[in-house]
Write a structure and sequence with these properties.
This protein is mainly α and 185 residues long. The chain has helices at residues 2-5, 9-32, 34-37, 45-55, 58-71, 75-97, 101-112, 127-152, 154-170. The longest helix is centred in the C-terminal third of the chain and has 26 residues, at 127-152. Mean pLDDT is 82; it is low at 1-5 and 33-39.
């Protein structure tokens, strides 16, 4: 109080109160928007998707690529998601041609389940019906995501699809279990 009565005391009070207000605003901003204060975590969705594809766990590969689209939307991420749809379709077609209907049922279960409730109430469906359901859906969805990728960057889409075409040609019986070598997953 005596500082306020001395010459220049009022200015010191105003200066310190401005500093306090500035500090308070900064703290409120950090607490109101904590994402600015926290460093961005590295994304590993594509690395995980690559492992899921190798294991034949197409549901998790799809989910990982979908998270990549949500967190980093780009032509590349949409192409990668489209590729997973194509991998499901290719694997399904391979199983059907080889008359491996039990494996088709297993693929259906992999895509349709993922919750503990499914253990007590499993989704039953005939393998040939499952094939038609899955194939129709993945073909439709791959068309949608491919169009989204093309809207973002047509040149990138063309480059990536050339790479996957070479990959598929080199591995006609197993391309759906992996990704093209040029893709940095």
């Amino acid at each position: 109080m005596t500082a306020l009565l001395q010459p220049g005391g009022s200015r010191r009070w105003r200066k310190s109160s401005r500093s306090a207000v500035t500090l308070l605003v900064l703290l409120c901003t950090l607490y109101a928007n904590p994402t600015q204060a926290a460093p961005e975590l590295p994304r590993d969705h594509l690395k995980r998707a690559k492992i899921f594809l190798a294991a034949g766990d197409y549901r998790r590969a799809f989910e990982a690529c979908q998270r990549e689209v949500e967190q980093a939307p780009s032509a590349e991420s949409y192409v990668y998601l489209t590729y997973v749809y194509h991998a499901i379709d290719g694997y399904l077609e391979h199983l059907a041609k080889a008359d491996r209907w039990v494996a088709v049922e297993q693929l259906y279960l992999n895509l349709a389940t993922g919750d503990v409730r499914d253990l007590v109430d499993p989704p039953d469906v005939l393998a040939r019906i499952a094939k038609e359901i899955i194939q129709g859906s993945v073909r439709q969805q791959s068309d949608v995501t491919a169009a989204m990728a093309a809207r973002l960057d047509q040149a990138v889409v063309e480059r990536l699809w050339k790479q996957q075409t070479v990959w598929r040609t080199a591995r006609p019986e197993s391309w759906w279990f992996g990704i093209p070598e040029g893709w940095a997953w």
